[in-house]
Design a protein that fits this description.
single chain, 816 residues, alpha/beta, 25 strands
Length: 816
């Protein structure tokens, strides 16, 4: 194991081997033994590789460990950075091909792997928890059981778990760990979580904690950072005076403050004739622009960099970024956030740096936003007390104090220990309520993102002067900001009622009743600032929203007769042709051809599910081959509802009347060109559009399935069939099976020891009793596993056929 780790950690193939830290080997050993872990390690100690190495080693040695890694981070910047560095490291040392590893990135602004199909998936905690509760990003709610199925057999890493909200994300994550513990491995990592919290999580995981010993900490402590308290608010002059070459990182708590400091600093540097590259990074930037700044940061603030640079940023850089500044100037913030920020200074071995913390008090006013709201900044507020305790602790340190591991631990326990102990106790006390809340959401499909993951108060802003040209299908660039912040700005305009009625500067989308992609969204001017509180997207005129090429979005008062010279409006990421043809197509396929194809693909892909299959086999006291047989059975039976008389009649009519092709067989799919508007219009006609079939097929199989299998197996089989087009399908129409249906079913089951009986039903039916079984964790796990295997095989089948015939990709979610 040590030799493998040494080779993997080399910067270049020709370099000498690098010895792994002892704790990295300990983490790998414990995880490979089947333990769940809570890892506490200082910033810059290599915990990313500590998390990834056991998975890569298990893949090389073909050990039973996990089907995939889902590596979750609190910030998008972190996820993107670690994705790039990991991918480059694996490619550089040729491990990517030898281990057959695909590294992917899944985020809101980069939804490259919405179904979690990679081997090493970097994503955000929001993405993970949203997939768990049935509201996945980057794909439709109808496909919710596909990414959820990726959790079964996975190795889930939560980096910087201390940043999870005690009211939303943390209880949901704790529920996920408990519910999926028999099927999923977990590693929680932190640099700044107090001991009481670590102990509770260790017990909840039924795992163990790993901490670095004093000797190992001392070996890592070759960097030197001196700490100074500045009893004043930071100014642009402070930045200009303190920057004396090298790389200066400035971290402030609010976007507006970052922007104003940039303009102040730029003016001072210009007056002094100093040519220094200054960049700004925060959340109110177009994604493409932000990616460009992040790329510059990773180069200018890299370990080998000799550049002179200044970066002014917000919290988006405070955790996990592998960058190093020689000077860090930061606003006061909670102690755990401060230590994360300090981790960006003199990050690497043998480096030296200076950290200066500036007060947030000015003229008797405490500027504690966003950590303390305006309404709750009194003594009874935990967040307020944390700010006061951090301030007091830092002020008491002697100027030039060296930041040691002992000091970091002392600071965390002094500031956060008592408060976080109380918070985690409250979370554990109420955890059974969160369990019930999530269970009901999984059954009913009514999960609330704001309650279970994160209270999202952001609104997406499009900047454009011509509303009639803004087509949402063309993916216009958007900037995110706080909804209330926008409301307060608009309310401060103090326009008259007549002006609100007549102006065309702030608009909200009006979505058409039709779900046709060709139907355009229109834009309606708002009549009151309150209207923005009820919308996710708003369009602002450049007269109110200025996008500066360096500092991003700036809201401004309306300008009159002023020529705009430096405005940048939202660009469209997709052209009109691509947006108009964003449709899926099908190729004609007989029922038996389709089933045989899906079964073949499912068998070929079984290696991607080997660990989840093993976990399930042990839990259900079956052999892995028996679990595989059940997955094969589900793929063989998933479309039995298409053998209904009415389904076959409509499909044959489409082929013979509309497509003018002779048809004699029972079909699974007809020829359908989704890019053709005429075909889409014709398909909607009642004479051609077949009825639904998924729930109908499950209901028809229910009696046979219930007699053949134990209930904990029968229910997941039926639910996977019932929801193979929509994760929340609930109602079945009546169905009568056509002549030859039973013979087709038996032929489709070739090689399987089953003879299903299809029972027609003449009334509408709601299988609520089946769905209620999702309260059982084993049923839920097997259902997610079977659904994922079935739906991905189904999608792969159609995509392959379309690529072969006309280069277009299909999906299983379009013609349900």
């Amino acid at each position: 194991m040590q030799n493998f780790f040494s080779e993997l950690l080399k910067a270049k193939p020709e370099d000498n081997s690098i010895e792994p830290h002892p704790y990295q080997l300990q983490v790998a050993k414990r995880l490979l033994e089947g333990r769940n872990l809570v890892l506490t390690t200082p910033t810059g100690a290599g915990k990313t590789w500590a998390a990834l190495l056991p998975f890569l080693y298990a893949r090389k040695q073909k050990l039973e460990f996990a089907d995939r890694v889902i590596y979750c981070l609190p910030l998008r910047t972190l996820a993107s950075s670690l994705y790039d560095s990991t991918k480059q490291a694996l490619e550089r040392n040729d491990f990517k091909s030898t281990l057959n590893i695909e590294v992917t990135l899944q985020m809101g602004n980069q939804p490259n792997d919405p179904l979690f199909q990679g081997d090493v998936i970097f994503t955000t905690i929001d993405q993970l928890l949203s997939a768990y509760i049935g509201l996945p990003f980057g794909t439709s709610k109808a496909a919710a059981n596909i990414p959820a199925g990726a959790l079964i057999g996975a190795y889930v890493v939560i980096d910087e778990f201390h940043l999870l909200s005690y009211t939303e994300a943390l209880p949901t994550f704790l529920d996920m760990m408990k519910r999926l513990q028999p099927y999923t491995r977990f590693l929680l990592m932190t640099a700044t979580s107090p001991e009481p919290v670590v102990s509770v999580l260790e017990k909840h995981l039924d795992g163990m904690s790993v901490k670095l010993q004093t000797e190992e900490l001392n070996k890592l402590s070759t960097r030197k950072r001196s700490l100074y308290w500045r009893d004043k608010r930071m100014s642009g002059q402070d930045i200009a005076s303190r920057h004396q070459g090298g790389r200066t990182l400035v971290i402030v708590n609010e976007v507006k403050r970052a922007q104003s400091l940039y303009f102040e600093l730029a003016s001072i540097l210009q007056q002094e004739g100093r040519a220094i590259e200054v960049r700004v990074l925060h959340s109110r930037m177009f994604p493409t622009h932000r990616e460009g700044v992040e790329s510059w940061i990773m180069q200018a603030f890299s370990q080998e960099s000799k550049e002179e640079a200044i970066l002014i940023a917000t919290q988006v850089v405070e955790a996990g970024l592998d960058i190093s500044a020689t000077l860090l100037l930061t606003d006061l913030c909670p102690a755990n956030a401060f230590l994360q920020r300090a981790g960006r200074c003199a990050r690497f071995a043998a480096q030296e740096g200076t950290v200066e913390v500036y007060s947030l008090r000015e003229g008797g006013v405490e500027h504690f936003l966003p950590y303390v709201s305006r309404q709750y900044q009194k003594e009874e507020s935990d967040d307020y007390q944390i700010m006061l305790r951090t301030e007091r602790a830092l002020k008491e340190l002697a100027p030039g104090t060296i930041i040691t591991h002992e000091l970091e631990k002392q600071l965390i326990e002094t500031v956060h220990g008592e408060i976080d102990k109380k918070r985690i106790a409250l979370v554990m006390h109420d955890l059974f309520l969160r369990e019930d809340q999530i269970t009901r959401a999984l059954i009913r499909g009514d999960a609330e993102m704001g309650e279970l993951v994160r209270a999202i108060d952001n609104i997406s802003i499009i900047i454009h002067h011509l509303p009639e040209e803004v087509d949402l299908h063309r993916k216009p660039e958007m900037v995110s900001m706080g909804r209330k912040g926008l409301y307060f700005f608009l309310n401060g305009l103090e326009w008259t009622k007549e002006k609100w009625e007549n102006q065309q500067l702030i608009l909200i989308p009006q979505f058409p009743d039709s779900q046709d992609i060709s139907a355009r969204v229109t834009w309606k001017p708002i009549q009151s600032p309150k209207e923005v509180l009820a919308h996710m997207t708003v369009l602002l005129s450049p007269e109110l929203a200025k996008y500066h090429p360096v500092v991003g979005l700036q809201l401004k008062k309306e300008s009159q007769n002023q020529k705009q010279t430096d405005e940048r409006v939202s660009k469209f990421l997709d052209d009109e042709k691509k947006a108009a043809t964003q449709r899926f197509s099908y190729q004609r396929e007989s029922y038996l051809e389709h089933v045989q194809d899906i079964r073949r693909i499912n068998r070929e892909e079984k290696g991607k599910y080997s660990q989840s299959t093993n976990f399930l086999s042990r839990r259900f006291r079956m052999t892995p081959d028996q679990i595989e047989e059940i997955a094969d059975l589900v793929t063989a039976l998933h479309d039995v509802g298409k053998l209904g008389v009415e389904v076959q009649r409509k499909m044959r009519r489409w082929q013979t009347e509309y497509k003018r092709k002779e048809e004699l067989e029972l079909l699974a799919h007809t020829d359908f060109d989704g890019t053709n508007q005429e075909e889409r219009d014709a398909y909607r006609l009642g004479k051609y559009k077949p009825p639904h079939h998924a729930v109908e097929g499950a209901v028809a199989l229910q009696e046979w399935c219930g007699k053949t299998f134990d209930r904990k197996i029968a229910v997941p089989i039926l639910l996977a069939i019932m929801r193979h087009h929509n994760a929340y399908s609930k109602k079945s129409d009546k169905i009568v099976f056509c002549k030859g249906a039973r013979e087709h079913v038996l032929k489709s089951l070739h090689g399987l020891p089953y003879e299903p009986v299809l029972k027609p039903h003449s009334i509408q039916y709601r299988p609520d009793e089946l769905v209620s079984w999702l309260r059982n964790n084993d049923v839920l796990a097997l259902y997610w596993y079977l659904s994922r295997r079935l739906r991905l095989a189904d999608r792969a089948s159609q995509q392959l056929k379309n690529r072969k015939q006309n280069g277009k990709e299909g999906t299983d979610d379009c013609l349900s």
